[in-house]
Amino acid sequence: MAEEVFFEMRDIDKDYYLAGESVHALKKVSLRMEEGEYLSVLGPSGSGKTTLMNIIGCLDIPTAGSYMLRGRSVGELDEQELAELRNREIGFVFQNSQLLPRLNALKNVELPLIYAGIGPRERRRRAEAMLERVGLADRMDHLPTQLSGGQQQRVAIARALVGNPSILLADEPTGALDQKTGAQIMALFQELNEEKRTVIMITHDMNIAAHARRVVHIIDGMISEGTVAGHA
Amino acid sequence: MLKRMRSFLVMVRESVSMALDNIRGNKIRSFLTLLGIMIGVMAVIALISTVSGVSGSIAATFSDMGVGTMTVTVTGSDLKTGMMPEDLAVISALDTVDGVVPTVSLNGRVSYGKNVQTGKSVSGKNAYYFQLNEDMIVQGRALNFIDDNNHSYVCVISQDIVDTFFFGINPVGETLYVSGLPFTVVGRYEEYSGGGIAAIFTGSPDILIPYTTGLKINNTNEVNSFTVYLKEDADSAAAETEISDAMDALFDFEEDCYTIASMETIEETMNTMMGMMSTLLAGIASIALLVGGIGIMNMMLTTVTERTTEIGLKKALGAIPWQIQFQFLLESFLLSVFGGILGVLLGLTLSYTLCNVLGTTFVLNGGAIALGVGFSAAVGIIFGWAPARKASRLNPIDALRAV
């Protein structure tokens, strides 16, 4: 058996219509990653980075080109298969943590496991372990409103990790946090990457992007490999 | 396969708990929404239970008066104005007929000593009548064939007559004047029974005498009203045909000489009327259910809009469209069924109260309960479908962006 491709995008194009106008959001984007990498996608707003994130996160499929994730060709999947793939392979961390307000931290973390069809006892065990990992062992039964912004983002990270996905996909994860809390969250990503987790960080902030070992720039729908100034 | 089944169960369980959470989270709104369903179901249940209670009571009254009887009213022709005793014997001898009870009504002037009362109802009956109602006589004896044959001046009297004339006196053996003629009291009855349909209109008589004596006092030998008692296994329709054939022959096939009223026909008519009334009322109540359903749909659409980001998030975390649709459908289903259950409870309470006020027996109608709950469940699914589908079709990218 040939070796499974972990992550490979080849000549990805993405067009969409916005208010009747065709937008050519991604142009011939090619990107390859190995398991365990820490990658930042750096670009200003309107550069196409959100579109790229949606495609990486299997929320959207490319107009042209191929995207292979864990040996599966994402462009050929239907809505249900995409949902299953997201559930298994992608751990999302959004800018404003997107926790369900009526569920406590533990229940929020359990959510992806429900869609994976895992029973309540096992869910609880895994969610507890993950909340402990992000340093919230004593906050499990707190509602999101009873948590600080940084804690909320930690819950979101725990939720992203609980299904043991291939890729941790973070979209401006520190955008809503103050500098100190943001730094703590970035440190957590660093640690997670050191534990061999693959991390993709989408950001417009050079300082954030600088935490990654590899940076790609996205401008006007096109990407180029690069480094961040001041970072070896 | 087993794994799929298992994950399905996990999902169902979580959906139920999430749906309940959401219903509880919006207590006032949820309550107002289910109010419509509740009122609709309450109306259906109250109406059906009350109507079935009332019609049950009516049916019981009818069967008390004797199913298996037919009352024949004779107007007669120019040549023959009524039924002679031998004509009655012809009817009595028919295959489907067990016996015939003629009714002869008399002028109600009654006196005992100096005590004179008018307006008392006096009715002539035959011995067969007393055979049918053996338990009726509580003191003395009933009237018999000898009384009929001899045109005897004997009578049995009601408790009312005893109270009026014989307070503190044993009435049996006393002489009572009816229409100026002396009758010997031979017995007393407490409850008049088996009067056939005629009793509904005439009420129960105070004094019963042999019908032959009644005819003699009225100076006639023709009876104009009698009740036919059918044999137990007789088919009512066949009996009616047989009786009317015999009557036609007796009246020389003249038209409009008599009418036959059977208990079954009247009961059927009553049942049809009750059924129509129930349907009509249920129709009105279902409008309330429809309005309730629209209320649920409205709330669900609002909920879907409010929870757009939640839906987007769940999709991003791996919820498939069907799971989203199921969750919202379940929410409207549960909401509606709660409304239905509350409606059933309130409806039964209302019906119980109404039945007590109307003096009819309250009947717990299982069908009505099932109908109420079933109907509300159906309303929840039907009116929840479109909002749930809308939720399931939301694009996760748009949904997440709508922060």
How is this structure best summarized?
The complex is a heterodimer of chains A (232) and B (403). With 232 residues, chain A is of the alpha/beta class.
How would you portray this structure in words?
Chain A is α/β, with parallel strands linked by helices. Chain A has a single domain (7-226), classed as P-loop containing nucleotide triphosphate hydrolases (Rossmann fold). Helices cover 33% and strands 28% of the residues of chain A. Chain A has helices at residues 49-56, 79-89, 105-115, 120-133, 149-161, 179-194, 206-209, and strands at residues 7-18, 21-33, 38-42, 64-69, 72-73, 90-93, 167-171, 198-203, 214-219, 222-226. In chain A, a hairpin with a 2-residue loop joins β9 (214-219) and β10 (222-226). In chain A, α3 (105-115) packs across α4 (120-133), α3 (105-115) runs parallel beside α5 and α4 packs across α5. The relative contact order of chain A is 0.20. With 403 residues, chain B is an alpha+beta fold. Helix content of chain B is 60%, strand content 15%. Chain B is built from 14 helices and 13 strands. Chain B has helices at 2-25, 27-64, 85-92, 127-132, 145-150, 159-165, 198-202, 211-217, 236-250, 263-306, 308-316, 321-358, 366-393, 396-401, and strands at 69-74, 97-102, 104-106, 110-112, 115-117, 122-125, 137-140, 154-158, 175-178, 181-189, 207-210, 225-230, 258-262. In chain B, strands 3, 4, 5, 6, 7, 8, 9, 10 and 11 form a nine-stranded mixed sheet that branches. In chain B, β9 and β10 (181-189) form a beta hairpin. In chain B, α10 runs parallel beside α13 (366-393). Chain B is elongated, with a radius of gyration of 35 Å.
What labels would you give this structure?
heterodimer, A: about 230 residues, alpha/beta, Rossmann fold, six-stranded mixed beta sheet, about 35% helix, B: about 400 residues, alpha+beta, 2 domains, nine-stranded mixed beta sheet, 14 helices, about 15% strand
